[in-house]
Amino acid sequence: MERNEQQESNSRSRCDDDTNKSIRIAQFYRKAEKAKTQQQERNGRIYAQMTTLRNCGTIQLPRQAFPPRHSITLLRHLTLPVAGSFTPRLVSVRRRSGRRPILFVETDVPESVSMTDSNSIPSSAHPAYTEIVVVRHGETEWNADKRIQGHVDVDLNEVGRQQAALVADRLSKESKISAVYSSDLKRAFDTAQAIADRCGGIEVIKEPGLRERHLGDLQGLSLSEAAKASPEAYDAFLSHKTSQDIPGGGESLDKLYERSTSSFQRIAAKHRGERVVVVSHGGTIRSLHKRACPSERPAKILNTSVHIFHISDVDEWTIKSWGDVSHLNQTGFLESGFGGDRTSG
């Protein structure tokens, strides 16, 4: 009798377990269906935010609209008709802890648009960011001699002028440039002028904030001379302390960073949705890299190397390409000359 009661009790317990399991499964599917519906609505909002793009760009979304992995897969194959024949598609997603994720999207340029008439393509393809093409000035004799320039106004040498002509020719075949900015030092300004002349005769705007770092008593000396001629300034120059000024009126790395990034931000804000060129110096460009990628160390910045930044309307800095010197196929480039690395001057 007791055994029968025990069997009935076990049977009822199993039935209860099966019932509870069925309820849990039903609840799971209801939640899954609800989540799917909500995700479709979110994806609809994401699709709606994809706007006309030129070659590549970013779309920033609130965290609650961020799609799960399977939706990202769907977005990767999504195409949307936009103005003209350009079609954006998702390339990658960048997660940011505690901040909005960024979707990177790109478009194809129609075959009917050739390199020679690409200046007819609107440069204001994405109003949410400014594309800034940063170019280091052409070679000078002091670069070739490994002499510290700083704020000393040194002219381009013959190789530097050839390099300027080549980078100008390259940029003239790319997307339309709205403005050209330059450091007010001649080696940068003359490089910028070559670019402006080749790209439709744009007026070069001088921006003193884009100057090279002031290197105090070291200016005019070679590295080999500097250690003996001005040991205090030399030690300050090589110091890892970013707040260290250089004797003789020289700047600290912190001052250079503040000056150069502030100028860059002002240019970006003024030309939102446009493509502009900035011609500057090795030390200054390193500061811009630090602002965009604080934990990374840039490769050496060669003469007339091209670096492309995207500055968003929420002050998000993205480096799209770095150190491109593919245009220097005729002159070569100065890889051993002073400048463009940590000891840039």
Structure description:
36% of the residues are buried. By secondary structure, the protein is an alpha/beta fold. It contains nine helices and nine strands. The chain has helices at residues 2-48, 69-76, 141-144, 158-172, 186-198, 223-229, 231-238, 253-270, 282-292, and strands spanning 56-60, 88-94, 102-107, 129-136, 179-182, 204-206, 275-280, 306-312, 317-324. The strands form two sheets. Strands 6-5-7-4-8-9 form a six-stranded mixed β-sheet. The protein has a three-stranded antiparallel β-sheet with strand order 1-3-2. The protein is elongated and about 100 Å long. Helix content is 38%, strand content 16%. The termini are far apart. GO terms for molecular function: phosphatase activity. It comes from Linum tenue.
Summarize this structure briefly.
The chain has 345 residues and is an alpha/beta fold. The protein has nine helices and nine strands. It has a domain at 124-324: 3-Layer(aba) Sandwich (Rossmann fold).
Question: What would CATH call the homologous superfamily of the domain at 124-324?
Answer: Phosphoglycerate mutase-like
Rounded Rg? 28 Å
Q: Which structural class matches the secondary elements?
A: alpha/beta
Task: Quote the beta fraction.
Answer: 15-25%
**Annotation, overall tally of beta strands:** 9
Low-pLDDT residue spans: 43-88, 107-125
In the CATH hierarchy, the architecture of the domain at 124-324 is 3-Layer(aba) Sandwich
- Strand line-up in the sheet with most strands: 6-5-7-4-8-9
Distance between the termini: 99 Å
General form = elongated
* CATH T-level fold name of the domain at 124-324: Rossmann fold
Proportion of residues in helical segments: 25-40%
Describe the largest sheet. 6 strands, mixed
The helix/strand order is: HEHEEEHHEHEHHHEHEE
Task: Let me know the average pLDDT.
Answer: 76
Q: Which CATH class of the domain at 124-324? A: Alpha Beta
Oligomerization category of the chains in this entry = single chain
Output the number of helix runs: 9
